[in-house]
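We both want to read discrete structure tokens more fluently, so let's practise on a single case. Would you supply a protein for us yourself, any chain you care to pick? Would you write everything just below, so we can both look at the same thing?
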Amino acid sequence: MSTAITDLPAASSLTGSESVPVVQNGVTKRASASMFAVAGIGALVPADIGVTVQGHADNLDAWALLDPTTKQDTLVSGTSIKTVNGTSLLGSGDVAVQETLVSGTNIKTVNSTSLLGSGDVAVQETLVSGTNIKTLNGVSLLGSGDITNGTGDVTGPASSVDGEIALFNGITGKAIKSATTTGLLKATSGVIGAASAGTDYLAPAAIGTTVQAYDVDTAKLDVIQTWAANQTFTETTETTYSLTGTDIDPANGALQYKTISGTTTFTATNFAAGQVVVVALTSGSSHTVNWPTMTWVTSAGNAAPTLTAYDVVVLWKISTTLYGAYVGSGV
């Protein structure tokens, strides 16, 4: 009766001198145990099966299958494995990637500021001539080349005095010289020369002789004067004024006249104390004439006069009181 190998009892250990049956090319033969590796010395122990090596079925004619849940999924570029710069990592060959950037070495700086890292780098906005950068005599400062005013070089003295005036020397427009004129200067068609006393200006000696010396008490013709001492006038001419309105104003002159053409109400709002105005009226008897509040000085007392075809009235003011006097009729 035949006995299966699996039914034989297991040997506890091998020394190398034992004989074991083997099947070689369909023929059973004897082999020395020394031909086989001893467990632990070049051979796997049972505990290695399924850990270090793939486990085998008990009938020795089929390898055990791996657990499908533990196998590596098929790699899909861009899905289960990333790409580099849009290039798949699967397949053969080499993928060129950007080397590590080093500021100032393989990537430039801006105004000495690194472009690496977070944040913002402030740079000069684009220059636009005449907008965010000025021009020089209408010429743009942008671009290459040199800006010149005129042509040629200007030459001058080897030295100068601080604050000294520079003048053109000759007519070339390229040479200058130091001014040597002393005194007040005048310009004639742009040429500097010395001013002459008495011709170009008044010398100090002329004050009080040729011109009036300043005096705080000097009377002026365009302002009201207050005379502190007695004045003698040989002849005066008063201003005559045709009164077009109804306000008797001393500023219009000391002699005023008017032809009455309808009911008229006079005022005297601008009288100052000491001012006097003579008023001549024509056709006063033909219309009603009303006077401002005033004190009349007449032969009839404080009463407004009865006007005729031609009358003369004098108004004056003392302190705050306005007075009037009827001189008489010319009829």
About this structure: Confidence is low (pLDDT under 50) at residues 60-64.
